[in-house]
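Why does residue order matter? Because the sequence determines the fold. Keep that principle in mind as you read this record.
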Amino acid sequence: MNDGVTCFFFFLRMTALRTMKHLCQATRNENRYAKRFFGTLLTQTAQKWFFSPLGIVVPDLRKSAVFGLTQPFCTDEKSHARPKTKTAFGSVGRRIPYRILHVINQDGESLGNMHRAEALKLMDQHGLKLVLLRENVEPPVYRLMTGQQIHEEQLKRAEKKKASPKPGVVQKELSFSSAIAKNDLETKTKQIAQWIEKKHHVKVTIRQAKGSSTDMLMLFDQILETVSEKATYLSKPKVAREGVSTCIFRHMSSKELKEHKKMEIKKNNTVKKDENEDLKSNELHQ
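Structure:
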């Protein structure tokens, strides 16, 4: 009996000793890993600390990663360096970031400088819309316009943008009088065809000669008829100013060329069909 109790207590003692041994080993491992981790961290961040004259260790704010994150998202210098996106022409509504404006009325007359509240009051009173004309001046220039005026101006700008040559596209220019001789017109047309072959844009300007009754728009159509296999209008003929008309020719795209060939084939088939019908009709009458 005494031997059994003695063995039991001996077993408990050995178990307790093994448990204590494992706990001590785990504690030593944790301390070792903690020293490795924090030792590396302290080594990396040691250069971010300096000693003050009072002997107190304080963080160097110039090198601190934490304080570096608290810098403003965008400084004034960076905001000026960022290019401004060009806004589309149209009503700005009531979103006016400037306090003082230079306002022009719907007739194009200057109303002088005024506070934006006064400009908005005029807009509401007359049922007009405010449009930003020039932003890079002091003060910025706004104009009061009707919806119809805005629409017409948008169409003009779209036409101007369409007519302007794209980057990398060469635009040639040619001008002559409406009283041009037939041989000279043929020479000019050949020159246009050569430029079109090279996929250049060709701006043609025709001046109305004194005493000439030639329709300048018909001259443009005549030129296009000669080069119609590859050319079309980029900008249709229009009166630029009194006595002067202009247009721009361009090379047709691959899709346009295919459509043009289809139309020509269809047109030729129609002509042949009409000729055959005329022949049959003549044979019957004979």
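Residues 166-252 form a domain with the Translation Initiation Factor IF3 fold (CATH 3.30.110.10).
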